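Question: Hello, beginner here. Any chance you could explain the protein record under this note? Any guidance would be welcome.
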Amino acid sequence: MFLIVLIDYGYRRDYSRYKADKYPVKHRRKVPFAPSLRLGPEYRYLLKQIRGLEQDLDSMVLSDTDYLELVSEAFTSNIHWSVALEGNPMTEEEVRRVTGSFFDGEVDDSPYGHVQEILNHLHSFFWKDELSLPWRAGVVSTVHSLLTQDVGRGYSPGILRTVFSSIEGGDGFEYFHTCPPEHILTELDSLLDWLNHSPYDEIVTAALFFHEFQSIHPFTDGNGRTGRTLFHLLLQELGLPNSKLCMIEKHLLQRPDIYYNLLAYTDQMNDYEPFVMYVTESILKAYEEAFGTLKEKDVLSKVDEVSRQLVIRSKRGGWFTLGEAVTWSGGLSEQSVSRRLRDLQGLGVIEKTGRTKATRFRFKTPFQDLKERSMRRFHEQVTLDGL
């Protein structure tokens, strides 16, 4: 009964009631940035559910075809919702076609700014290893530059704003006056110093960072897209790597009025709790959807325990030998382990190279070539010493 009550009130909050007393709300200077908040038992429950689903997703394995389809759908959804809010005219189906061409290795660049924006975002999903914490202002400028490169006129990739700015909704309603340009670098440095030493868990840290980033609004344009990209990178960096499989943006942004009102309310009232809860509920809903999809296609539900352990160990990365696989099998013969590895190859989970004694195996991921391609592009455009 207690569990039912927790689930019930965890999804019942009416976020439409959080509005500022007067609009537009003016940005409050926060140097040093030192937010504080109190979260009730419903937050702890939701966080526990998300972490449990993270573990569940990590223990599941899809064939390379099914995994590619799942990631393609997640990337398509998150990119579409993020860029559509900022005026990109492409439909979700059009974004899906660009994503498919990108995954097939057919396209990296486009002469059309709205298409190039999609491609830039697709590359961003492979940047995590290059942008691990701690972050400095150079990381933020680099991400903005890469996302807005060749998108079109009106953008100054990686250049901090020097003029007044405000946050407006799609109907032109002015919700928020952002940080004065003369204070941007000081406040951004303060935010990043806090981020690099945050005492909070992964979701609170990412949510508070995102809110303050939007409040500062360091660039003339592209702040929402940059902030949400950094938000996703933080979730993965801080302990939720499978968040990349989840359609989080759909739940965050499908009610723009609630999204913008919460941004303004938080800064006016210095009350972060509603925004954190809104973000947390959005993440949980996205994780539940991803779990439902993966559960139906989980390859490991169809194999024995030895094969399951072989796959779990292989997911740790790198090539391995048949002899090493035997040590993971609990005492089975080479012949039995070899047969299981052949079956896993047939399921599209394991791949091999070489012959006879030179044979090696590894967990099969459809994104190895894509990641290498994106990393080459990243290093061509970025001087890492500047990060």
